Amino acid sequence: MRRYFSRDVAGKLGYFVNRRIFKLQNEYTKRDGGTPESRAALARLRRDLDGGAPAWMTVGSDLFEGWGRSLPSGEEDPAAVRAARAAMELYACHQQSRRHGVAQDAKDADKIRMTFGRACRLIDPDMEHAKGVRRRLSAAEAAPDFNGVVRSVRALIMLMRSAGDGTITLDYRSLAQDLYQIQFPEACSEVFQRWSMDYYSGTGATTQRHDA
Fold first, then answer.
1. Would 2 disulfide with which of 23, 38, 77, 179, CB 3.0-4.6 Å?
2. What's the mean pLDDT when you consider all of the chain?
3. Is residue 184 scored above 50 in pLDDT?
4. Backbone dihedral region for residue 97 (phi beyond 0: left; psi -120 to 50: alpha; all else: beta)
5. Domains by residue range for the chain, with CATH
């Protein structure tokens, strides 16, 4: 079992999650209303976050298909599995009933990378009225365990869904890496520092990531 944060694993995990999410997003946002398979996959992924017990032999194909040798096994590094699972479940909540893709498109290379902190700032750019956003960010930092962090992140993603015209996108590759890193005591503070800087400096700020 891995006891220390690995930047190499974080980078590979982010790319794996991104591939899985974009495969699903491309199917779900097709002009004909998306494929039945993609709608069913999103429903399965949401079920766990909604408190239902997942049927692992069914949801496993959505989560783990393509989990190659470059990524650790669940026994070697359970934090990687938890991060991938949480990121994809959060994406499923964010994408629900949206006909546009909510995961930031990798083709938008000319745009600012929409990290979690930057996306949270877009919920309500008026800092005078964004106390609820900051309260939830603080709750994530103060959470006693990983599940508590995920609950706070989900609350913020639900605010992204309802903010403005509902078009806030999120870089899920970045979020998956953060959710992995946040599980290691020696490395989690760096994540909250990054979220804070990206949030308070606004969407035009740039911060160096571990996979840059």
1. 77
2. 88
3. yes
4. left
5. 7-201 (1.10.520.40)
